[in-house]
Amino acid sequence: MLLIRCPYCEEERPELEFRNAGEAHIARSPNIAGESDDDFEKFFFIRSNPKGIIYERWRHMHGCARFFNAVRDTVSDRFLMTYKAGEPKPAKLPGAAK
Amino acid sequence: MKKYSVFAIAREAMRGHKGWEEQWSSPEPKKEYDVVIVGAGGHGLATAYYLATVHGITNVAVLEKGWLGGGNTGRNTTIIRSNYLYDESAGIYDHALKLWDGLSQELNYNVMYSPRGVMMLAHNIHDIQVLKRHVHANRLNGIDNEWLTPEQAKEFCPPLNISRDARYPVMGAALQRRGGTARHDAVAWGYARGASARGVHIIQNCEVTGVKRAPNGAVTGVETTRGFIGARKVGVVAAGHSSVIMNMAGVRMPLESYPLQALVSEPVKPVVPCVVMSNTVHAYISQSDKGELVIGAGTDQYVSYSQTGGLHILQHTLDAICEMFPIFTRMKMLRSWGGIVDVTPDRSPILAKTPVPGLYVNCGWGTGGFKATPGSGHVFAHTIARDDPHPINAPFIIERFRTGRLIDEAAAAAVAH
After folding, report:
1. What is the CATH number of the domain that holds A30?
2. Is the CA virtual torsion B13, B17, B23, B25 positive or negative?
3. pLDDT digits over B372-392, tens only?
4. What CA–CA distance (Å, rounded) separates B3 from B347?
5. Which among A15, B179, B369, B386 has most CB atoms closer than 10 A?
């Protein structure tokens, strides 16, 4: 089981308290009805599914119930960092040399 | 290829089993092939086999980064069934089921296909409605599926607990009698032997690291850990790593890869005569010919390539097994493992041409690809050989995620996702 640090509660909690909410930093168009089929497919269905560093959303379901983002290595499942929702994609990762 | 037969066994018994030949050869890779298949699991090897036998294309290489059949082919719970809801799914899975029947004879290799019946349990009124809908839809598609009362379910599978006092009592079941199990490794080995005998090169420990394309966009071959291998056509059948390979060709896929776990118990005498599945309590179980209970769990909730998975997922599944079969509460589990499954948004596979000329993909089988192995290889070989899909796999195109013509088995697949 993963141990995940909630950036709002500021502590590591077991994975059972959390729900994964998919890839992060995929912005929904403000004019979703005006999206072309191509763009809607990219937004709705296409995922990067990386073997390596992934930026993903989690929700602290059975805690503060808030969404936040995490950076994780999908090969080792090790979390590099977590950060609050709305914060930009971190430019530098701690200990990123894999 | 020497034919396996009772006489071969008798002959070898007389001379200390010294005359068995290798089941497939391990040649050095050539500089170029007509077709390169990426991934030597069941689906990839079946594709190569049908390219050779049905379409006469034998200048084929199957590249495997690890060992043959060591990915999801060797990690699944070997369940075979075709009781899917939608016409498209029924078409492809029943095509496979028809090929399972007689596969051992065709390959001259015992794949131990055992149509012992797949029984899906209903625990509430919604399960009853959904499963009965499946029964009717399947029968309209010519697929056998029948409704059982709890007593009939108990008669078919005696260790099942149908007590009214259970937390989730059994209220009925849908039974597909033609469903069952097969020996997963033998499927890969049998196809490998058949393909190799017809001139297909099976190259293990050869990881694809890049896909080369000509200025006009068409594929020209693959970069591998054993050097460049040219190819006029490339078929990607890489399961959990399909999106990684497709990214090398510049194609982003509607796929996410998750760990899926399974486990087996200590071997015991025959006790579970069929396959039992339950969506609601989230477990499925069968018994291998060795006597181990083979138990499948659900996927983890996050994208991962770690081939492990959380222990709590297994505990959740074992809770369900003990609920359905209280006699197993003291069984010891021997091993557990994980495989990486590639899941599409509509839980149906992609078997299709791609936007890149000469590049074909067979992926997205998610949590249930083993059952489709012969059918998948058969229609994918057709797609590669003719550069045009077989009618059976024509709906399973990548473009359906743009057009919206999904095959949405997510809620309908009658399997725990």
Report:
1. 3.30.2270.10
2. negative
3. 999 999 999 999 999 999 999
4. 40
5. B179
SS (H, E, C) B252-321: CCCCEEEEEEEEEECCCCCCCCCEEEECCCCEEEEECCCCCEEEEEEECCCCCCCCCCCHHHHHHHHHHH
Task: Give the closest of B244, B306, B403 to A77, CB-based.
Answer: B306
Could you tell me if B267 and B291 are in contact, meaning their C-beta atoms sit under 8 angstroms apart? yes
Is the pLDDT score of B140 beyond 50? yes
pLDDT value at position B414?
46
In a domain, A89, yes or no: no
SS3 A68: strand
Task: Say whether B401 and A41 touch across the interface (CB within 8 A).
Answer: yes
* Residues in a beta bridge with B38: B63, B236
Mean pLDDT of chain A: 94
Any idea how long chain B is? 417
| The CATH classification of domain B25-109+183-254+346-403, taken from the options 3.50.50.60, 3.10.20.580, 3.30.70.2860, 3.30.70.270 | 3.50.50.60
- Comparing CB atoms, the residue among A46, A74, A76 nearest residue B303 is A74
- When pLDDT is averaged across residues B354-367 and rounded to a whole number, the result is 96
> With contact defined as beta carbons under 8 Å apart, do B412 and B129 qualify?
no
A11 assigned to some structural domain: yes
Residue A17: give the domain boundaries.
3-84
Portion of chain B with pLDDT greater than 70, in percent: 98
Distance from the B207 Cα atom to the nearest Cα atom in chain A, whole angstroms: 15
Domain membership of residue A79 (yes or no) is: yes
Q: Which value does ipTM take for this structure?
A: 0.94
Phi–psi pair at A68, nearest 5 degrees: -150, 175
CB proximity under 8 Å: A 28-87 to B: 37-38, 40-42, 44-51, 54, 56, 72, 74-77
What is the tens place of the pLDDT at every residue in B67-104?
Answer: 999 999 999 999 999 999 999 999 999 999 999 999 99
Fold for B118-177+257-343, please state it. D-Amino Acid Oxidase; Chain A, domain 2 (3.30.9)
* pTM of the predicted protein model: 0.95
